[in-house]
Write a structure and sequence with these properties.
Blueprint lengths: L1 H13 L9 H7 L7 H19 L12 E8 L8 E9 L4 E10 L2 E10 L10 E11 L5 E12 L5 E10 L5 E10 L1
Antiparallel strand pairs: 1-8, 2-3, 3-4, 4-7, 5-6, 5-8
């Protein structure tokens, strides 16, 4: 039994398993051997506690990849949108290979918004897919209050694929002083 005590002490000091031929109860009687080293137990408890905190923490909706702002445009219309025509051509939509054009036309009956996104790809060209998860159009009145909100579905141009998307909104209210168009998505 004396040899077992010496072997157990060596196993404890070197972090090895208990010597072959010894029984677990012989080792635990002396209280000098543990299958888990003391430092490891502390780390397991810390990792478990952090895991519980992360599971119980609600994730903010703004953290999702589908809510990444790919491109955002804001137009100030002045005191009245009547007779106003604005055109914007973005040659590098979202910092990538697509092009975007927006056209706002103010009439007495209301404001119309035309949106076009297109991409041409040469046969030998390799480009990332364009993923737009949604398009949000917001209109603000003269006090800066949200008075119009409309969400359009998304669209996708595949890897190294050309594409075209368009949407026309003819029902924007007359009293808008500012229009914001937000494309949520990314290039992958």
């Amino acid at each position: 039994m004396e040899d077992c005590g010496r072997d157990c002490a060596e196993a404890r000091d070197n972090g090895r398993k208990r010597p072959e031929g010894t029984k677990r109860h012989e080792m635990s009687r002396r209280g000098s051997f543990s299958l888990i080293r003391p430092g490891v137990t502390k780390w397991c408890i810390v990792v478990a506690a952090v895991g519980v905190l992360l599971i119980d923490t609600p994730i903010d909706r703004r953290c999702y990849a589908s809510d990444t702002i790919l491109e955002q445009y804001r137009f100030l219309l002045g005191q009245s949108a009547d007779g106003v025509t604005l055109k914007l051509h973005d040659q590098s939509f979202g910092g990538g290979t697509a092009r975007c054009s927006l056209s706002i036309c103010g009439r007495k009956s209301g404001v119309s918004l035309q949106m076009r996104v297109r991409r041409a790809v040469r046969p030998d060209e390799i480009v990332l897919a364009l993923l737009v998860f949604s398009v949000e159009v917001r209109g603000y009145d003269s006090g800066g209050r949200l008075s119009y909100s409309h969400e359009l579905g998304g669209f996708t141009f595949g890897d190294s694929r050309p594409g075209a998307w368009h949407a026309d909104l003819d029902s924007l209210p007359r009293g808008l002083r500012e229009i914001e168009v937000v494309f949520l998505g990314n290039y992958e």
